[in-house]
Design brief:
Layout (H helix, E strand, L loop, with lengths): L1 E3 L9 E7 L11 H8 L5 E7 L5 H10 L4 E6 L1 H11 L5 E6 L5 H6 L5 H10 L1 E10 L2 E3 L2 E5 H16 L3 H14 L4 E7 L2 E7 L1 E5 L2 H6 L5 H5 L3 E6 L4 H12 L9 E6 L2 E5 L3 E6 L2 E6 L2 E14 L10
Parallel strand pairs: 2-3, 2-4, 4-5, 5-17
Antiparallel strand pairs: 1-6, 6-7, 6-17, 8-11, 8-15, 9-10, 9-14, 11-12, 12-13, 14-17, 15-16
Organism: Cypionkella sinensis
EC number: 2.7.1.-
Enzyme class: transferase
């Protein structure tokens, strides 16, 4: 859901930049001067908030809001964007998005531009929209939240990144190795809009990005645009089944009912025999204690998008 917001006069705004130096292929700090030079003529005040540890991103964004920032720009991948969005949701401060990660699903969905230069132009000439965000026990997510094998893939991916560097090939390899080593599926109880069901599955994936689902050739994009949560539950229990299903996913040939179950709801609660689990939020992982209550925060985040598009209004 996207709702028009009040207009924004960038020239009257204090603008903060939260940049994650560890995100993506390049050092985010190297871009700081270029961003400052590009934005300073168009804003009232520009203040950078650099961090070198991803865990410090929410605190930096919260500090920017407390310091009176009207616009908080996030430079980094989906994990960085999600962390900043979590700090801004419900505050009234506007979020700007500069892609700096591996996949950049959130930036691509907003169509802010594939490059840093294009995204900076969007910040200067763009417009403001209010948008929905996902919520798990009060923790905001933008693209997806997942339980089971995917958080373990992220653990393996970090180790491969450290050795070989960040790349999509490294990301896919980490998935293959983790799936091959996977053993026992999760035993979950899923409650959707008051109806409780039992599942044995290696992966529960809750989607909030219509763009990501369409990019992956999966159903559910229209339900997300209607403000719903979409839950995918993998059906294969063994490594071979999951690898075959993963291959079909990569080539856009996944089959509902064969590779996964798909459930749509306004609210979802997930409980497990193992109450404390490793979760993944927009490509970043953390441990949390269930039951896990998922919902949509309506129009919680104000974000700058390109002018004149479907996602934009006059600013």
């Amino acid at each position: 859901m996207n709702t028009p917001s009040p207009t924004l006069n960038l020239a009257a705004c204090k603008v903060a930049l939260v940049l994650n130096g560890a995100s993506g292929k390049a050092d985010g700090h190297a871009n700081q001067d270029m961003i400052r030079d590009k934005l300073t003529p168009h804003v009232k005040e520009f203040v950078p908030y650099p961090v070198s540890n991803g865990a410090d991103i929410p605190k930096a964004a919260e500090r920017a809001v407390q310091d009176g920032a009207d616009v908080v720009i996030a430079l980094g991948g989906d994990g960085t964007q999600s962390a900043v969005a979590g700090a801004l949701a419900g505050t009234g401060s506007v979020m700007g998005v500069l892609p700096g990660g591996t996949f950049n699903y959130f930036a691509r969905e907003l169509q802010v531009g594939e490059t840093l230069e294009q995204a900076l132009d969007t910040l200067i000439t763009g417009q403001v929209r209010s948008m929905d965000v996902g919520d798990v026990n009060g923790r905001v997510f933008l693209n997806n939240a997942s339980f089971g094998v995917y958080p373990k893939i992220l653990e393996r991916r970090e180790a491969i990144y450290k050795r070989w560097g960040r790349s999509r090939i490294a990301a896919y390899w980490s998935a293959l190795v983790t799936l091959w080593e996977m053993r026992d599926p999760m035993h979950l109880w899923v409650t959707l809009d008051g109806k409780r069901q039992e599942f044995h599955t290696p992966l529960a994936f809750v989607a909030r990005s219509a763009y990501q689902l369409e990019n992956m050739g999966l159903e559910g994009a229209e339900a997300i645009r209607a403000g719903k949560l979409v839950l995918f539950l993998a059906k294969g229990h063994g490594p071979r089944q999951l690898i075959v299903a993963g291959f079909r996913l990569v080539i856009g040939k996944s089959v509902r009912g064969q590779d996964f179950d798909l459930l749509v709801a306004d609210e979802i609660e997930i409980d497990s025999r193992q109450p404390r689990r490793l979760l993944a939020f927009d490509g970043e992982k953390e441990r949390a204690t269930g039951p896990f209550k998922l919902r949509v925060q309506r129009d919680a985040l104000r974000v700058i998008v390109p002018a004149g598009g479907e996602k934009a209004t006059a600013a």
